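User: Predict the complex with S-adenosylmethionine.
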Amino acid sequence: MTQPTDIRRVRGRRPTLLDLYCCQGGAAKGYADAGFDVTGVDINPQPRYPFRFVQADAIAFVLEHGPEFDFIHASPPCQHDSECQRIQNNAHPDLIAPTRAALEATGRPWVMENVKGALPKLYAPVMLCGPMFGVQTYRHRYFETGGGFTLLQPWHPAHTAPQAKMGRPVPPGHYGQFVGNFSGVDLARRVMGVPWMNRDGIRECIPPAYAHWAGIHARYSLLAGAVAA
Ligand SMILES: C[S@@+](CC[C@H](N)C(=O)[O-])C[C@H]1O[C@@H](n2cnc3c(N)ncnc32)[C@H](O)[C@@H]1O
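Assistant: Here is the predicted structure with S-adenosylmethionine placed in the model:
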């Protein structure tokens, strides 16, 4: 049973966005900057989440409330597919297929984002990388779309800056890899554009610039009638 919500799609208001598996709100910030009124859902408390927040299971919530929103974003936990977790042999549920099924059931346009390890399970995803948006880190994330919404693959600039080792301090002129128990939270906040987050949120998040780009396209599709408004 999820918590009640009074979100309704109302003409003439800011379009509403449901942010599933929201964590500390990297995706949320980008969609908010693109003009959406954002509601986040996470199974864990997220006191740093900067928008309206509901603590609930994402799939149960979207099945009950998804049709009330104009657009839906989902970031199912990536631990199931990330190299580090496989090495540690940690077991995590694979939520990609059940999340897709629940998103499709809403009839709303949607984006589902994940990591490279999930690629075999994603349908025709678009890959986003920091330098496409002036973000100085090579954090690749893959965006599958559905419900009538599509994105085009942007040009991928070459990785010309040297990278600091995973999680290690970032030497001048290098790009950081903000994973695991990384050092340099203040630098990561500036690079990723997430000044309200702690280390736990930063290692999980997409840079808001990625979601801003998706959100601008989502708003255009809603306005143009390319997806059901
Ligand atoms: C990869 S993080 C999302 C990152 C976020 N999109 C961002 O950009 O900051 C995944 C989140 O899913 C949450 N989560 C895991 N299982 C969940 C479930 N069944 N329902 C809702 N949230 C869940 C975790 O607590 C975690 O915060």
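The chain has a mean pLDDT of 91.
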